[in-house]
Specification:
The chain is mostly helical and about 150 residues long. It is elongated and about 95 Å long. It has one domain: Glycoprotein, Type 4 Pilin (2-Layer Sandwich).
Length: about 150
Amino acid sequence: MKKNLISNGLKNERGLNERGMTLIEIMIVIAIIAGLLAVLGTMAFSRLKEARVSTAKIQMKAIGQALESYNLACNSYPTTDQGLAALVTKPGADACANWGPEPYLKKSQMLDPWKKEFIYESDGSTFELKSLGEDKKEGGEGNAKDLLYSELE
């Protein structure tokens, strides 16, 4: 035969408390979860910024390799006026007779992780490639620092 429940209804047949959690206990749990999310969110956002800088460096190295291939075929780098577009479409027979047979670079590779075009300058014998970084302005510090091809490791 089953035991009767105690008149206040707080204990079940086995004598266990079924009262539940109070509002204060729930609020404490929510505050702890919110604090953890804030810390983890900040860390994740910081990692995302670092990942974009790494991605920009990798892209710049790929563009540098494409420029070297262009230089081997054409005996010079594209000029500043020709720009990186010379790696995507043939700049003209007089500019480079040996261009191709396929593009050296995809058009989508000419944008940095912040959706800005890389800045390219060349006199034909040397080149510099630059990304303005997260702030998209000259200068900057940390993740907003300008990235230069000549300074890559």
